[in-house]
Amino acid sequence: MTRFALTLEYDGAPFAGLQRQANAPSVQEAVEDAVFAVTGQHATLHAAGRTDAGVHALAMRAHVDVETAIAPFRMMEALNAHLRPRPVAVTACAAVGDQWHARFSCTGRAYEYRILNRRAPPTLDAGRVWGIGRPLDADAMDRAAQALVGKHDFTTFRSVQCQAASPVKTLDRITVHRAGERVLVETAARSFLHHQVRSMVGCLALVGMGRWEESRVADALAARDRQQLGLNAPPHGLYFVHAAYPPEDRF
Amino acid sequence: MTRFALTLEYDGAPFAGLQRQANAPSVQEAVEDAVFAVTGQHATLHAAGRTDAGVHALAMRAHVDVETAIAPFRMMEALNAHLRPRPVAVTACAAVGDQWHARFSCTGRAYEYRILNRRAPPTLDAGRVWGIGRPLDADAMDRAAQALVGKHDFTTFRSVQCQAASPVKTLDRITVHRAGERVLVETAARSFLHHQVRSMVGCLALVGMGRWEESRVADALAARDRQQLGLNAPPHGLYFVHAAYPPEDRF
């Protein structure tokens, strides 16, 4: 048995999410179908994180176990040949020991949220950014965001469908900065609740527009009440950008 | 009569080009239809350059003449409302004097060509970059490209459909550099022949792959023979990025 660690890049638009669904296309189904086409084996894709419908990934980490003599580079090439023309690609592939698990060995996840802040709607970036016409104060968003850093009960920023056992998470980092017409939110944690990033970004956008006082983000967090959520940002601005592993599990 | 100078951004994918066509959607048709919807007038869109089917623009400059009391900002907002959901947007709009002509006042055009140089095919960038799997030597491409700078007969790099009176053009600048997985070609001239940028990029890609000696670009240019063209790069990696106007025509 060979465990192949895969790095996946995908456009979330045509998918109902990363995870396999009964009646809708998923990234998992696309990759598992490609693995079957290449190896003749039904393998399960294990991924570092679960992304929702419409959410993108620049470098999702995942693994599959298959009985094969194919070298990792040929495996990557063959998977990409079968994945075309769907917008999912394997950008790196390595054979790893079976102590390495894409999900359970992962010690940190990082996301980026991209806002296009201008009057004109997105064209080349349509479906890949959240277009906000009203001018955003990125500095105010960044200041307000710092109240979210640390260990908190994130019930306010958690989807009602969230299946996590506890709403308590530790947010390691969240920053907001402007790059020309773009406002970028970057955040990292060991793990996130369902919709947590989109919920945080939605409230920060209200701060950026001046509709919320900066301090209201801290108040919403302290309330531990989903009704205090101002706005859930749309999925198509969200990118899974990095999964971290401990040094002994790097390859 | 008010002359509105427009800055246009568009995704070239769904269009048969900038210029109006009898039986296919064009950027010109989309914008002229929007102008008619807003003002009730049939105006002709004059643009700084003509882009082919599939070619994108980050900042095409154009103008329309209409009898209207609408202020430029409202004009931009109204045009964008009518352009949706097509991937064309007016990113800037100003009222200018009728001595300013988007095409005839324009003294320089700049294009960027984007190559994604990695084994995996493009996903999020599909239709927006030329994916080349074989490693490119961007430094060799840059060196070879310098033979094209200056006043030359560009017959080798000219489409057989090109309607320009002369094949002689002066290329002001062409540079190639790598930015991570991307190889970017930037070029500027007063004007270009039909397919000139794509033809130059195609030959430079052959140099980058090691299939052409660096000196062969200069040889192909000197031959003034379309049969010497190595490769025409695909349209979807090409972006019109800038139109220059003399200081007295800026606004």
From TrEMBL, chains A, B:
Active site: 52
Coiled coil segments of this chain: none
Ranges of residues in domain Pseudouridine synthase I TruA alpha/beta: 9-104, 144-246
Protein name: tRNA pseudouridine synthase A
Superkingdom, natural source: Bacteria
Residues at which substrate binds: 111
SUPFAM superfamilies, sorted: Pseudouridine synthase
Assembly notes: Homodimer.
PANTHER family from the UniProt entry: PSEUDOURIDYLATE SYNTHASE, TRNA PSEUDOURIDINE SYNTHASE-LIKE 1
GO biological process, one term: tRNA pseudouridine synthesis
Family assignment from sequence similarity: Belongs to the tRNA pseudouridine synthase TruA family.
GO molecular function: RNA binding; tRNA pseudouridine(38-40) synthase activity
Catalytic activities: uridine(38/39/40) in tRNA = pseudouridine(38/39/40) in tRNA
Entry function: Formation of pseudouridine at positions 38, 39 and 40 in the anticodon stem and loop of transfer RNAs.
Provenance organism: Tsuneonella aeria
